[in-house]
Amino acid sequence: MGSINVFSEFLEDLPDTDEPVWVLGECYSVKTEKTELLSDVHSRLWFTYRKKFSPIGGTGPSSDTGWGCMLRCGQMILAQALVCSQLGRAWRWRAEGGQPEEYHRILHCFLDRKDSCYSVHQMAQMGVGEGKSVGEWYGPNTVAQVLKKLALFDDWNSLAVYVSMDNTVVIEDIKTPEQACLHTHGNRATMCPHSQSQSRSDWRPLLLVIPLRLGINHINPVYIQALKECFKIPQSCGVLGGKPNLAYYFIGFVGEELIYLDPHTTQSAVESEAGSGVDDQSYHCLRSPRRMKITNLDPSVALGFFCKSEGDFDSWCNLVQQEIQMKRNLRMFELVENHPPHWPPFVPPTKPEVQTTGAEFIESSDKLFESEEEFEILNV
C-alpha cells in the first residue's frame, strides 16, 4: 500500500525531462513510461550491509557494515547476470509474491550464511587468496576476481566469469580457450586444463567484467559518452564503482547523472531453510533510486556485460566496435581477436584445490572494529 507514495516520491525526484532514461540496456521515457521504468528498477536484486549473521570463518565479524559495500555491489552485478540467465531480462518482480522457483533459488545463492554459493562469507574468505583480510575493503577488480573463482563452484548456473586484463578483452580467450592455450603454451598445449576441444554447444552463459581506470582522481570527461553507451548495450549488466571507499552498483543514466543502487543500509540477516521461499521484501529497493553526477565518479570502475549465448557475445563485440571504439578519440578498452603474445599464458580458471575457512587470516577483533569505525567515519 505504501508503493503508491514511493512511486510518486520517485517521480517527483526524477528530472522532468524529454531525455531518455537508460536502465541496463532498456530505454524509458519519464513522461510516458514511468510505471514500466519503476518496475524495472524495483525488480533488480538489492544487496545491502547485513548484521546478525553467523560469524565469518567462525570467529570473524557477524556484520559487514563499514567494509562490505563492494562485496554487496559484486553480489548485485552477479545476481543480475543470474536473473538474466534463469528468468530473462524482461522478468519483473511482484511485491505480492508468486515468484518463480528459479528466483528463490537465485536468492538462496546470496543469503548471509557460509554454505550459500555467493554469500558475503564465501566472498570474504575467497578474497583472502586475493590478498585481502576478512573485513578489508575491496576495489572493483578484487571483487571481480573473487566472483570468477566462486562461479566455479556453482554447478546450477554454470556461469563463466571472464575478467579482462590490462583494459583488453581477448575474444579468443572467451570463445576458444583451448586455442588461447595453444598460442600461449606453444608445444605444451596438452598441459592446459581446458585443452580439450570445445564445441559450439559448450558455450556457458558469460558474465564479462572489464576493470578500468578512467582518469586519475575523477573520471576523465573524454570517457563519459562511452560510459553512457555501455548502459545502452542490450547486454549491459551494470557497472561497479562509486567514490573512494563508497561502492555503488550503477544500473543506468539520465542526462548527466548515473542511476545506482546503494548498499549502505544495514538490515538484519534473513533466515531461510534450503528449498523454501525467501522473505524477499528487503532484497528490493522501493525508495527513490539514487542519482549522482557522472563527473563525481571515482575513475576506478568495472563494466559488466552478460551474454547468454555465443550470438549475444558476437553481437556485443559488434556493438562495442561500432559504438565504443570507432566513434571515440580515446578508447575506454581494447577488443582484440587473439591473445597477445607478450602476455603471460592464458589459463582458464579452475577450482582452487584447497579451500581455507579463512578464519586463520582474520585479524584480531580489536583491529577489525578499529577499521570498521574508520570506514563508518568515511561513510558519514
UniProtKB/TrEMBL annotation:
Reaction(s) catalysed by this chain's protein: [protein]-C-terminal L-amino acid-glycyl-phosphatidylethanolamide + H2O = [protein]-C-terminal L-amino acid-glycine + a 1,2-diacyl-sn-glycero-3-phosphoethanolamine
Pfam family, one: Peptidase_C54
KW Chloroplast (keyword) present: no
Xref: InterPro entries: Papain-like_cys_pep_sf, Peptidase_C54, Peptidase_C54_cat
Domain Peptidase C54 catalytic per the UniProt entry, residue ranges: 35-318
Source taxon at top rank: Eukaryota
Keyword Hydrolase found: yes
Annotated localization: Cytoplasm
Keyword annotations: Autophagy, Cytoplasm, Hydrolase, Lipid metabolism, Protease, Protein transport, Thiol protease, Transport, Ubl conjugation pathway
Example GO molecular function: cysteine-type endopeptidase activity
Enzyme Commission no: 3.4.22.-
Protein name: Cysteine protease
Origin species: Oncorhynchus mykiss (Rainbow trout)
